[in-house]
Amino acid sequence: MDPERQKRKEEIDKAFLTQLVCNLLDEGNTVFRDGEWRQAAAHYSEGVNVARYAQSEALVIPPELLESLYVNRAAAHYNLGEYERGVQDCDSALCVSEGSRRALYRKALCLRELGRFREAYECGTACLLTAPHDRQVSELAQDLAVKLGLKLRKAYISTQVCHLNSFNFKVLQNGSTTTNLSLLSRNPLAATHEFRQACHACYSRIGPRVMDYKYQPEAAHRCKRDVLLCRLKSSDDTTWKRIRPRPARNNFLGAFVLCKEVQERQECQYGENCTFAYCQEEIDVWTQERKGALSRELLFDPLGTNERRALSVTRLLQLHMGMFMFLCEECFDSKPRIISKRSKENLGVCSNLTARHPFDDNKCLVHVVRSANVRYSKIRPLHPLCQFDVCRHEVRYGCQREDSCSFAHSVIELKCWVLQQDTGITHEEMVQESKRHWQRLEQNCYESSICQSSLNMKFVCGQCWREGQVNEPDKALKYCTAKAKHSWTKERRVLLVKSFEKKKWVVVRPLPFSRTYPQQYDMCVHVMKQKKCHYIGNCSFAHSLEERDVWTYMKNNSLRDMQQMYDLWLSLTNQNRRSDGTLITPPPEEKQSTLPADYTESMVGG
């Protein structure tokens, strides 16, 4: 048989057998919930037999699937009173997935019923180490401790989870699988709070106090949706409150409280850096975020129909910046982590000098973002058991299951899975598209030299500019160079341009909101006649020749917002002090691995 036909036949057999095992597991779960334990055990046994047959034919069945079959059959044996057989199934599950929390918990239950309390206690404590906040596991450990006469300690417990917990998925008529979303993508405050997205154009300051803001959704502008607003549904106060990012203090476990200065006189000397909440809505959101029950990234359903339709590699890089590249997985997963690319001397191995791993057999896709540090997010391959949601454990304190976890460990990994499911794109194609994306950006940077030849451009601190000072960012791009050290954030920086014929810096406003670009940008008549524009709102006419030139350049190069101009400015002025020009501020609230930039290699040529 032709090798290609043989390979295609093997892939068809593998997909068919995997789908058959999934169907048997799903049917077993259904009758299990109906209380038909014997019938459920029969379905699980049939699934195990099919999986063993597939393995005998050298076809790989996902270990998570086989683990679920053994653990769920053990649950059925437990309900039937067949505790010894339940222990055997749990041992089989632990052979497939070492340290499985569900297998350890189910084995502890069966051993307890058999009167083997010491063994049950050891299994229960091992399970408690992987799930310290699980109410069921904690209660089991306490019960076993009482039976053994051990001293009890108060345990930290949380809401209980489904005792079956068997990678729930629904099988569609066409054979494809869909997964259920976990609580993270839902809004736990939906019943009591309203949320809305805004920007600094439609949610603007109207007074000197910290709460003097007003939401004006009717303002004509292109909303960036980078400000989270919230208000209580049952409150008489109908004003929208801004929810600042949660303070980055991972060791703080106490309750969030209101700022006394804001309560007393609506002012705070620490401003945006204050770690106390400005309003009750902020306390509620911060509390849920710390619990891992709410994610701003998923609050407004970024994976809805419209967003999914627009997903592409270029779109992902525009949203999350950085680039995709391959690294050696053996080195990446080692402790401590080692960043190894393909060796330039020997293309068949990685660049690790102490252990030359075969690169093509061990490569993994990684999303890399450079800022003050270099952040790496591993993108695992999409498989049938992937749960399309972010792991709540990874959001809080890191997932103990690591690569065996079926949930995404970052928002960028979640979106990559969705992109793969919708388009069928491979990791190799994603890396190639990422390279083409950066080549286009470099070409735009080269073409922008035409604009630079006639205009001098720089970004400065907006707060200092209003006070008559011109201060650029520091080397780390965290604060401005003034003594006050204002935070260097998107909403605080201002674009200034100066033509070589003039000596005065001129502010350039963001591009006027428009669904389509105009043929050309004209000068404001009021500015030309009276040197001042009296239009109430955002005037869509240029207020200076320099502003008109910049707007025209942005239109010609499809640059719709100041963030893209800022990225170009960083590349042109070499603010990032790096050769590849990929220093982009990463999106907040996304947990990623961080390594100092000084100890990593350049991303060029990966």
UniProtKB/TrEMBL annotation:
The keyword Nucleus does not apply. Residues 390-412, 518-546 form the C3H1-type domain. It comes from the Eukaryota. The keyword DNA repair does not apply. Coiled coil: none annotated. One of its GO terms (molecular function) is miRNA binding. This is C3H1-type domain-containing protein. It comes from Pygocentrus nattereri. The lineage of its organism: Eukaryota, Metazoa, Chordata, Craniata, Vertebrata.
